Amino acid sequence: MKSYIVVGLGRFGSEAAKRLCELGCEVLALDCNSELVQQISAEVTQAVVADARDKEVLKALGASEFDCAIVAIGDSLGDSVLATMNLKELGIGYVVCKAHDEVHRQVLLKLGADRVVIPEQEQANRLARNLSSRNVLDYIELSDDYGIIEVPAPASWVGKSLKDLNVRAKMGVNIIAVKHGKAINVAPGADYEILPGDIMVILGGTDALNAVQKL
Question: Is the pTM of this model over 0.85?
C-alpha cells in the first residue's frame, strides 16, 4: 500500500486526499484550519491540524516514512516553499506541489519539487485539446511535449494485431492499454487483434500523438 501525506486541504488538496484514499492508499491529511481537517477526517486514513512550515511538526508526524507528499498550498508562495523544503529535507522521495502561476512553479522546481502542477492551466489544456480533436476522449499531459491520449481505434487498425501495426517503430507511440466496454486490457500482447469499438490508450510525444489523431 502506497502512503501519501497531503499538505493543504483546500479544494485541490482535499479532492486529491479523498481520491487517493478511495484508491486504497494510506493518506495523512494536514492543514492549519481545524474546520477543513474535521470535514475530511472521515474520508482519509488520518487528518491532523498541523503546520507544515514547521519541520519538527512534520518529523513528529513521521512524514519521512511516506512514499509521496502533495503540497497543495497553492495560494501562498512562502508557505508552499517552506513546506516543500521541509519535506525534501526530511527525505521524502517524491514531492508534488501545486502552484498558482509559472513563476511559482519555477521556484518550487528549483527547490527540488519532483513535479509541479498548475491545476487550472492543466485543465484548460486538456479541455482545449479535447475540443480541438473531436476523436480524443481524454488527454493527460505528462510534460510539455509528452502525454497520453484515449482515442477510438482508427478504422485502419481494426482487425489487425498490434504486431502487424507496429506503431512503436512506425509512429513512435506505445499502446499501453485497450478498453472495450467495461473491460480494460493493460499492456496488451503483440497478438492482440483490435476490435470495433476498442478504445486505445496511447503514450507518446505530442507530434506523434497528433499524427495518431489524424488517422
Answer: no
